[in-house]
Amino acid sequence: MHRFKKILNTIKYSYHYLWACYYFSDYKPQPITIRGIINWLNQFDEKDRKIILALLHKVTYYSEKETESIIVDLNEQLLERLEKADIPLKKVIYVQIHDPGSSSPVMLSIVRDRGRIERKGCYFIDSKNVREILETTTKLEQGAIIYVDDFAASGDQFAEAREFLAQHIIGNFSEFFLLPVICEEAHSKLSRLGVEPITRTIHSKADRPLHPHSSLLDKASKDRLIDICRQIDKRGGLGYKELATMVVFYRNSPNSLPVILRGCVKQNPWRGILPRTTDLP
Amino acid sequence: MSPNAQANQSPKNVASAVAAVVPQGTLQRLKVSDIKPNPNNPRMLFDRLPLNDLKENIRQHGVLVPITVYEVKGQKKYAILDGERRYRCCLELEDEGLKLTIPANIVDPPDKIAGILYMFSIHNFREQWELMPTALSLQIVMKELGDEDTSRLSKITGLSEPQIDRCKLLLEFPQKYQDMSLEPDRATRIPSNFWTEAYPVLNLAEETLPTIAKKIGRDGITDKLVEKYRAKRIKSVIHFRRIIEAYDVTSEDKKEQKRVVDRLAEYITNVDLETRQAFDEFVVDNRRIQGSINACKDFVSLLKRSKLEHALEKDELIVALKRVKEYVEKLLQKLEGSDEPAIDKKNK
Question: Nearest C-alpha of chain A: how many angstroms from B78?
Answer without folding.
Answer: 9
